Request: fold
Amino acid sequence: MNKMQTLSKNQQIIFDLIDKSSEPLKAYSILFNVQKKGIKAPLQVYRALDKLVELGKIHKIESRNAFIACQNSSCQVSKATAFSICEICEKITEISSASLSKYLRNFKDKDGMKYSKYNLEFFGLCKKCR
Amino acid sequence: MNKMQTLSKNQQIIFDLIDKSSEPLKAYSILFNVQKKGIKAPLQVYRALDKLVELGKIHKIESRNAFIACQNSSCQVSKATAFSICEICEKITEISSASLSKYLRNFKDKDGMKYSKYNLEFFGLCKKCR
DNA sequence: ATTTAAATTGTTATAATATAACACTATGTA
DNA sequence: TACATAGTGTTATATTATAACAATTTAAAT
Ligand SMILES: [Zn+2]
Ligand SMILES: [Zn+2]
Ligand SMILES: [Zn+2]
Ligand SMILES: [Zn+2]
Reply:
């Protein structure tokens, strides 16, 4: 049913880096980290990031211009994402809540418009920073 | 109760431009449009934008790097925002739904973390583009 | 096996978005 | 007045992201 997706060389290198990182990574920090592996130009990074986002393997934290590996099951291929962001230490966690995603999936606005995709970013203080 | 906030000269010029615009504006497009009014440098624009966001007079659409005037009552000073974005025509509307904002305001994650702020962006097709 | 299309890569240059640092000016208030 | 805070103007620079083009690899299709 789910066609197994094989990542290309650059995609795999960049996914591995993001996946093993304990914090979201920015594009140019990724670039710096993969230069030893032969990826030399921003475009090579951005292309891989685009593809990985499209596949739902990573998500972009829009308010931070940073990328994090999906902590769920690729989030229905990246169509429904929610994050918790600590405004002090910048710890970012992907929220996995069935009730939240159900609520948002079914949300209709005043015009009856239904949405195919959403991104939600919550801000506050994490346990440690409170 | 709400201290009436007087905008500074640059803040007022930039707010007026955004407020009368029918679509979200990007920083450098704002810069271009206010050069005849004597605002010449990016920093002057970004400083005014920062302040206007802080006051809740405008919001930043994170996924678009664009700014839109608040269509509600300054959204409790910018702490709770939700937008509808058409992926074809890029029409962007601020969503005002009591039930949505109540749901999100009260949302607690698994750790019992409560949030002081959120930003939600919905994507889909608007009436016209469907 | 050969052809073809689609995806990926490599590379240079450049566009678009945003902030640092510093000197100065206006405004409010004690 | 004197003091603090907020806002301004300016130059330079940092950060994020895409355009354009040529070559290569991969996966089907004949
Ligand atoms: Zn995910
Ligand atoms: Zn924290
Ligand atoms: Zn608003
Ligand atoms: Zn539309």
